Amino acid sequence: MTAQLEGGVDTARAVIRVGVVDDEAMARTFVGKILGSAPDVLVVAEGADGTEALELVRTADLDVLLLDLRMPRMDGLDTLRELRRVPKAPAVVVLTTFNADQAVATALQLGAKGFLLKHVDPAELVRAVRVAAKGGAVLDPALTHDLMGHLASHHLDRIGAAAEVARLSARLQDVLRLVGMGRSNSEIAEELRLSDSTVRGYVSEILAATGCANRVTAAVLAQRAGLLD
């Protein structure tokens, strides 16, 4: 059953509201303790499977949902499929123990904003929640190399990825680099002194030119191409 965790916390302050869904109670507790140490992050609800995830999305007004893939009753992929029908669904970050898992690539194609391995560094977990809340891409570096082999449109080695990116204009490469760093559209606009609408247009152009399904796979391409080196 979904657990509401707000208690007596004053949620009127500006915080990122997070839900944690994992079938392992210890994993939920571990993630909750890490996020609870951040002053701008609040874990407001948790669940043990996809059915409970959908319930808390409807009731807890989440900004970010941390979602395990392998769960009973309804797994993470089926949950993502259902969330595509939910208006204003929270940003979903997949938590996984599996390197090079085809399910991770499928999760991104279903709308997940990123992925993290469960043994991610605590500081990186907090940073990832902040990035996802702003609409940025969340990428665990330990997964990006293997993930490339699972993305149907990008069976590229480093040289191939660099060649793909080289076809973009210098401005689009600048935008792609910032996408790869997890920047949101508004952050990219501020850094490059552009309007938000211009950045949205550039991101759409990048996706169309490279065949990336979304900004997360575009961020993977940026990493493989060496734009973040």
Q: Could you characterize what this model shows?
A:
This protein is an alpha/beta fold and 229 residues long. It folds into 2 domains: 3-148, 3-Layer(aba) Sandwich (Rossmann fold); 158-224, Arc Repressor Mutant, subunit A (Orthogonal Bundle). 48% of the residues lie in helices and 14% in strands. It has 11 helices and 7 strands. It has a 7-stranded mixed beta sheet, with helices on both faces. The chain is globular, with a radius of gyration of 17 Å. The model is unreliable at 6-13 (pLDDT under 50).
Helical residue percent band:
40-55%
In the CATH hierarchy, what is the class of the largest domain?
Alpha Beta
Sheet-strand content, in percent, reads: 5-15%
CATH superfamily of the largest domain: Response regulator
Mean pLDDT rating: 84
Structure summary:
The chain is α/β, with parallel strands linked by helices. The chain is built from eleven helices and seven strands. It comes from Actinokineospora bangkokensis.
List the main descriptive attributes of the protein structure presented here.
229 residues, alpha/beta, Rossmann fold, Arc Repressor Mutant, subunit A, 11 helices, 48% helix, 14% strand, phosphoprotein, Sig_transdc_resp-reg_C-effctor, NreC/VraR/RcsB-like_REC, DNA-binding response regulator
